[in-house]
Amino acid sequence: MRRAVALAARGLGSTSPNPVVGCVILDAAGRPAGEGFHQRAGGPHAEIHALRAAGERARGGTAYVTLEPCDHTGRTGPCSQALVDAGLARVVYAVADPTPQATGGAGTLRAAGITVEQGLLAAEADAGNTAWLTSVRRGRPHVLWKYAATLDGRVAAADSTSRWITSAEARADVHRLRAEADAVVVGSGTARTDDPHLAVRGVEGAVQPLRVVVDTEATAVRAGARILDDAAPTLIAVAEDADAGHLDDVVRPPRTDVVRLPRAARGLDIPALLAALHERGVRSVLLEGGPALAGSFVAAGAVDKVVGYLAPVLLGAGPAALADAGITTIGEALRLRMTETVRIGADLRITATPEPAASGSAAEAASEPGTHVPATHISATHVPATKER
Predict the structure, then answer these.
(1) Strands laid side by side in the 284-287 sheet
(2) Parallel, antiparallel, or unpaired for β 183-187 and 378-379?
(3) Is the predicted pLDDT of residue 380 greater than 60, yes or no?
(4) Is there a contact between 24 and 32 (Cβ–Cβ < 8 Å)?
(5) Cα separation of 206 and 381, whole Å?
(6) Contact, 153 vs 255, CB < 8 A?
(7) Cβ atoms of 63 and 24 closer than 8 Å
């Protein structure tokens, strides 16, 4: 099953809106017979790849799958029936499928006389599929907030200069995060100051994410902006009442589009933004915006994971990584649990997830039901996940 979890990770970034799934098949004698993972939406599921690799050796064997085999016909047939037809004697899956249209595979397998077991390495499989599971359980995309800062928490100097705080290795690692996300989101401040490109570079076979600019007043994105090129699709989110007529000259649907959303007390309504992205098939968001936009997401309880790149640099002045998030006292602080610390070049990458907290708190709003937090570990090296369900 641990091999199946590793295989599933190879589909990160290319399977949306489907989950990532891995499958390993052993023959009747317990020897490896075939394996596979879901490589792209609309393509064969992990079980089908593994069954094709195993051939007749699957008969009487055992299949280990990270997600309950689907029981419906969509762009592909039901995997439960494929496993029955292949003559498997036993199927072990880690996580039950929570989607109403796909669940039921375990019942079909049992009805055919196959021994079925659930829960092996469920926490690891859940963590590996957290983006898709969040989208199903919460009805919105999973949000990973990434930032780069000095050791004293500054994201820019007092004169607004910010390039480059972290190392080339850390910046390359960010492209891996982009390649695993369905959308990359920045705010108007970042768009205006940095003119970011936001496309993935240096990751072979990457599916380019949707580039999103939260430009409430429709003043940050102008003709010639790098985000308007053809490297990746772009969505500009503006307020319903914003004067955005000038965008008609730069928007070229469907490659570039504009969405109008309601306002919040500050900027755009974050739940409305996430709902609009979810409707477009976005299941995972990489939030790369500046301190103000990050504060809005935290205040809305819409941050599921934080990845901070800390450089061994001190500034002593300049903007902090997080602006006003609606937290006024230490008792309201969004407590995080560190799940990983990794050395990236000269920098330290820290990954953390919100701690469950008392009812009504920001932490509770941001926490993910059923989220698994793997054991904390420290490593001096990082091996990027291979992209390829």
Answers:
(1) 256-261, 234-239, 210-214, 183-187, 284-287, 142-150, 305-311, 347-354, 336-344, 378-379
(2) unpaired
(3) no
(4) yes
(5) 22
(6) no
(7) yes
Tell me the mean pLDDT in the region 311-330.
95
241-276 pLDDT, tens per residue? 999 989 988 888 889 999 999 999 889 999 999 999
Strand partners, 35: 24
Tell which wins on pLDDT, 371 or 173.
Answer: 173
Of 72-76, 184-188, 303-307, 354-358, where does mean pLDDT reach its minimum? 354-358
Which pair of tokens denotes residue 38? Answer: 């879901």
CA dihedral 11, 364, 190, 147 (to 10 degrees): -60
Give the pLDDT score at 91: 98
- What does the alpha-carbon distance between residue 157 and residue 159 come to, in Å, rounded to a whole number? 5
- For residue 1, is pLDDT > 50? yes
Strands 284-287 and 305-311: unpaired
Q: Average pLDDT for residues 200-205, to the nearest whole number?
A: 93
Distance between CA atoms of residues 389 and 382, nearest Å: 23
pLDDT at position 223 over 50: yes
Buried b (16+ CB within 10 A) or exposed e, 173-193: bbbbbbbbbbbbbbbbbbbee
- d(Cα 312, Cα 98) in Å, to the nearest integer? 43
Q: How far is CA 73 from CA 24, 81, 150, in A?
A: 22, 10, 51
CA–CA gap between residue 353 and residue 147 (Å, rounded): 14
Q: Are 76 and 109 in contact (CB under 8 A)?
A: no
Q: Considering 47, 180, 340, 368, which one is annotated as catalytic?
A: 47
Q: Look up 180 and say whether it is catalytic.
A: no
Amino acid identity of residue 274, one-letter, is: L
